[in-house]
Design goal:
Elements: H1 9-32, H2 39-46, H3 50-56, H4 60-84, H5 90-107, H6 109-118, H7 124-155, H8 163-180, H9 190-206
Helix pairs in contact: 1-2, 4-5, 4-7, 5-7, 5-8, 5-9, 7-8
Length: 214
């Protein structure tokens, strides 16, 4: 999770055009469906010629994979802002991460569902690099989660469990929760999201017994 060096003006302009194309494709894929959307429509929606699209993406499939990469990058950015650069110590950062992930899943549930459905239909040759990038990002996220578990355990008097094992379990809890709430998540209010995030970390650190009233 390293920051990239600043881009020159020409590179920034090129990146801006690419982001405009991705935003147009993202909107049309969600509105019309992947198969029903053409590159010509994406070009018109982005206010570019079709030739400009081909300067960045060789096919609609490549454009879709770029959106998948964008999604993975957004997940990694959440981990960086909450787990590495966030306020508080281990437990507070883990709660912030869980809450932000749930909120992101609520706001992007249709896109996530589209990616999960469509990615398995991509050819292995083209899909393999994306899956490798996804695996690498998830590994970095788990490492960031594990560092916060290690910090929390050290503050409690020593590491009793493998931080990476705890990270995998916690990450699985967050993702399972968001995946099973795709439908109702659309209308899930912010207060309920915060309660869900707090519940996850509380169960993880304190168990499901009756809270100590003392």
């Amino acid at each position: 999770m390293m920051s990239n060096p600043p881009l020159c003006r020409k590179a920034r302009e090129k990146l801006a055009r690419q982001q405009d194309i991705l935003a147009a494709a993202r909107e049309l894929f969600l509105r019309q469906g992947y198969h029903e959307t053409t590159l010509e429509e994406i070009a018109r929606h982005a206010e570019f010629g079709k030739g400009t699209i081909y300067n960045y993406f060789s096919s609609k499939e490549d454009l879709f994979l770029a959106i998948c990469d964008q999604l993975v990058g957004e997940l990694e950015a959440i981990a960086r802002s909450t787990l590495i650069e966030g306020e508080g110590e281990g437990r507070q950062r883990l709660t912030a991460y869980a809450g932000t992930m749930i909120r992101y899943s609520r706001d992007n549930s249709e896109l996530i569902a589209l990616v999960m459905h469509r990615i398995h239909q991509i050819s292995q040759e083209k899909g393999k690099p994306y899956m490798a990038r996804y695996t690498a990002v998830m590994k970095r996220i788990c490492q960031a989660v594990s560092q916060n578990f290690q910090t929390e355990q050290e503050q409690r008097g020593g590491c009793c469990y493998d931080p990476m094992a705890l990270a995998i379990l916690f990450e699985g809890m967050v993702r399972t929760y968001t995946m099973t709430r795709f439908g109702p998540l659309h209308s899930m209010p912010g207060e309920e999201i915060e309660q869900a995030a707090e519940m996850m970390t509380t169960i993880f650190f304190d168990g499901i017994g009756k809270p100590n009233q003392g």
